[in-house]
Amino acid sequence: MDILQHHIQALVFCAQSPISIEEIQRCLQEALGMEEVLVSDVLEAVEAINERLKEQGFAFQIYAIGGGYQFLTKPEYQDTVSTYLKHKSKKKLSASALETLAIIAYKQPITRSQMEQIRGVGCDYAVQRLLEKELIEIKGKADTIGRPVLYGTSQKFMDYFGINHIKDLPQLKDFATEENSIGESAD
């Protein structure tokens, strides 16, 4: 099992994006000449790797993210890493691009005119920037007059925001605050 763990570590480490269990299985079977690598063996090995990393006090571990596995730093080091990334990142998304991205994420698949109706302003530039950054992608065409293009989030969006599925996005109820009231509550 140690050999399997070492090979899985190597695969997860060298993958530029989250590597799926299926990819891990395929690579291990081909590289090690194994007939079959069970999903349970891969999951058990990932768990053992994370346990070893935890015991030895490493600042990272393997996380399930974006439909696969990737080495990421632990949450307690978020401030340090975000400071580094803030200095490294020269081009950030504008407020309009972030608004547009949020609309796409929550309403996908969505057309540009639907986005503009929600925002109340044109979205051409924001959509173009999001496509360039590969945070959104074209999902097809709508079955309406003119067959407008439908947009949705990409796998890179999932990776960037650290979620596995769109359903993992925070819901509106997560942002709701209690209403302010004057006087005492009537119990």
UniProtKB/TrEMBL annotation:
The keyword Cell cycle applies. InterPro entries: ScpB_csome_segregation, WH-like_DNA-bd_sf, WH_DNA-bd_sf. Keywords: Cell cycle, Cell division, Chromosome partition, Cytoplasm. GO terms for biological process: cell division; chromosome separation. NCBIfam families: SMC-Scp complex subunit ScpB. This is Segregation and condensation protein B.
